[in-house]
Design a protein that fits this description.
The chain is an alpha/beta fold. Helices cover 34% and strands 22% of the residues. A hairpin with a 2-residue loop joins β16 and β17. It is globular and about 70 Å long. The N and C termini lie close together (11 Å). The chain binds zinc ion.
């Protein structure tokens, strides 16, 4: 639908730009949308006329959530593994191979249906941008088709051929890394914006991760990394060394890791070039200790929140759930958590056109069934997303 759209009667508008406090809040506000972009933000009383109008009726309006870490291209589920964990079994990451077998056996249409179902589920919960990784194919053809299918639903696609060493290469990990850096990357790169590695004991060590990420970067992909989730290691510092947009998980950090992240601070005080993306859904679903968000924030590190949506360790697509967890379990303030789930996610994807509601930004808005963003943490588990506008289009 073309023409302009005015959302007015906004009781509390989170802009993440100019306004009150870290969220750039404006009260009694309106937003004018033209051609998929925010054209004007100001007081509701002096809003310009538009072709169509949505009266928010005093509700809160936020930028759409930016979920910068999700694994949506897979088949099967691992509910039994979850139940076993809840009965006391530890999480090791080894269950990924179960999903690899199911994914390889699935048809394109089955994979496509799963991606669309989860993308739709997330959209209804306010996620207007969602990164999607490969990583359950682990052959040249299966990684390429995973990314081809992911690219139908997102421009933020990530090649994760180095998710785990597949069973057929179990005793030849060097050979598998060679495959990932060579033919698999070549087949995947046309459909990917990013390269990622699961850098963890039991997956890929720092040397393997460096080789894979450097190859991806040489092929024109941006760098992101799964680091320091299950234990301490060199992943975070490797990410900083390779100018990663984001180091993800960050559950087990040394002082040197935090210092390395803080050392990527922009000179203008706008945070760090490498973002720490925290994924509390994974700690929730594996009953593990949460990352220390306060330590990162107090060191000046830019923090993002994302779902890590995947069938093994975090089968949630809900950013409001992650916001509530971050506030309750990670001692982030509601304002810090909402910023991390919107502008923080955008930073983790090196995007400045999303995660904010300022003139020129993409018109991705969510209208809450609540007077304030505070309700996202204050009313956990409640469907508070009344309306979603993506790219200026009412969903
Ligand atoms: Zn992940």
């Amino acid at each position: 639908m073309s023409g302009s759209l005015l959302v007015d009667g906004i009781g509390e508008l989170v802009t993440n730009g100019a306004g009150e406090g870290p969220l750039g809040i404006r009260c009694d506000a309106a937003v004018l949308v033209e051609e998929g972009r925010v054209a004007w933000v100001g007081p509701s009383a002096s809003a310009p006329a538009a072709d169509r109008r949505i009266d928010a009726g005093g509700a809160a309006v936020l930028p759409g959530f930016v979920d910068s870490h999700a694994h949506l291209v897979f088949a099967g589920d691992r509910a039994a593994e979850f139940a076993a964990r809840m009965a006391g079994a530890p999480y090791t990451g080894g269950g990924i191979r179960t999903t690899v077998d199911a994914t390889r056996a699935a048809t394109d249409d089955e994979l496509r249906a799963t991606v669309r179902r989860l993308r739709g589920e997330a959209l209804r919960q306010g996620t207007t941008t969602m990164e999607i990784k490969s990583g359950y194919g682990l052959t040249v053809d299966d990684e390429a088709r995973s990314l081809r299918i992911a690219a139908e639903s997102s421009t933020e696609t990530t090649f994760l051929g180095a998710h785990v060493v597949p069973a057929e290469y179990a005793d030849r990990p060097d050979e598998y890394v060679g495959l990932v850096c060579g033919p698999m990357l070549a087949a995947a790169a046309p459909y990917a914006r990013w390269v990622d590695v699961f850098c963890e004991r039991g997956a890929f060590d720092s040397d393997h991760a460096r080789a894979i990420l450097a190859s991806g970067r040489a092929a024109g992909l941006g760098v992101r990394i799964h680091a320091n989730q299950l234990g301490p290691g060199g992943g975070v510092r490797l990410g900083v060394e390779l100018d990663a947009a984001s180091v993800d998980h960050c559950t087990h950090l040394s002082d040197a890791d935090v210092d390395a992240l803080a050392g990527t601070a922009h000179r203008d005080g706008s945070g760090t070039r490498t973002v720490a993306t925290l994924l509390p859904g994974a700690e929730f679903s594996t009953r593990s200790p949460y990352p220390d968000a306060r330590r990162l924030l107090d060191a000046g590190v830019t923090v993002a929140l994302a779902t890590d949506c995947n069938p093994g360790s975090s089968y949630t697509s809900s950013m409001p759930f992650c916001v509530a967890l971050a506030v309750r379990e990670m001692r982030m303030t509601p304002a810090e958590a909402v910023w991390a789930a919107t502008a923080g996610g955008a930073r983790a994807l090196r995007r400045d056109d999303i995660g904010v509601l300022t003139p020129g930004a993409r018109a991705d808005l969510i209208v809450l069934d609540a007077p304030s963003y505070l309700h996202l943490a204050y009313r956990p588990g409640v469907p508070l997303i009344r309306q979603v506008i993506r790219n200026g289009v009412v969903q």
